[in-house]
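Ticket closed. Logging final result for Large neutral amino acids transporter small subunit 1.
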Amino acid sequence: MPDKVGPAEQQPLRKTPSSDDGIRLKKDLGLLDGVAIIVGVIVGAGIFVSPKSVLEHSGSVGQALLIWISSGFLCLIGALCYAELGTMIPKSGGDYAYISDAFGPLPAFLYLWVALFILVPTGNAITALTFAQYILQPVWPDCPAPYLAVRLLAAVITCLLTAINCYNVKWATRIQDIFTGTKIFALLIIIVAGLVWLCMGNTENFRQPMAGTNTDPGHIALAAYAGLFSYSGWNYLNFVTEELKDPYKNLPKAICISLPLITIIYVLANVAYFAVLTQSEILVSDAVAVKFGNKLLGVMSWIMPFFVACSTFGALNGAIFASSRLFFVGARNGHLPTAIALINVNNLTPMPSLIFLCIITLVLLVIENVSSLITYVSFVEAVFTTLSVSGLLWLRHKCPDLHRPIKVYIALPIVFFMICVFLVVLPCYESPWEVGVGTVLILSGIPVYLIFIQWKRKPRWLVAASHELNMTCAKMFMCVHESKAD
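Final structure:
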């Protein structure tokens, strides 16, 4: 809830000795950092485990590869559309900022609502759990690691990365750069090993690539969901636009470098999987990369669990860094408690936002089957991506003279919008329960908005509680409000 106390009461939060130089998030991210964030967030656990789901719904190797290619192409189109949005509306917060400018505060708050409690912390929890499972695999090689050990390690790594992001932005981006290189190296090992296997004449898995193809539109949409899950995070750089050096140039450059690179690597990695493993072997495996390593790499097969752990470590770091800015911007706009919009005076990081996100992620780690939320998350994410790109089309009509440093060809957002509608509508027939739950999650934010945002004459005790939370966070974390731009 936004703080409604008078300016005099807020004064201690705004005036500190160190605020003379301007307390705000600094533009420390260059082009390489932007590429590392996109690649680092996208290449998480998905490419090492998702090929099973894509193949299961596709029915054939040929169609599965087409899904991987089309998913990458779709994300590239979407990222280019977001490049126009990000340079036209140069604010951090990504979809939240674009939906707010196009359609007003309520739809933007609904996105923030589901992102706060479902989209972001669920993704972070799943990534942390995947890291823990793979890093513990050498300790329990013949059986799954104990439930408590996995949860405890996932919690520790979440807290560690949150602390690093709280302390120093450059440390966080250096970690991102290093682990992005590590995960690309892991995928290159898979690609080279698979291509060598193919060159040795092992082509039997590609002799009838379209045999068993599933042409049902609903299953095609579900296969696309599985593929897009591995590409998820392509819009995370838009969350940190305000911290990007020369965003008009570096945002589109980072997108145009990252997405084609990831698509090529993903497709070649899947060719390697399909060359070495049969369809039945892939469909019974929950960790395709590990099965690939066990079959082809021999005594070096241990490197696959290690590299998957490195991959998820980097993905979690990038997600924590970028998504915390989303909640920072939401609080700055009055849609979350004001305390979340505070900045640490020494490190110039949104420390309360990072810690708040960490707490929610830790709560989700307690849920035994947090992975079951993935289907709900995919639908909800598709809904708001559709809303964001429709906002681009609406702003083209509503504000044709608005300054657009980047203006994509109009056919791109139209095509992207139509595909997003397809991905939203078709699962309604194949997975009506998941769609229903996702819709309820979105709509549950409406009463919250009406009570805590829209309602102006709030009880004094509620206003006092909000102010007390704000003051406590400011003192505890040595934070102040962001300085106004000159």
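The domain at 29-455 is CATH 1.20.1740.10 (Amino acid/polyamine transporter I). No further action required.
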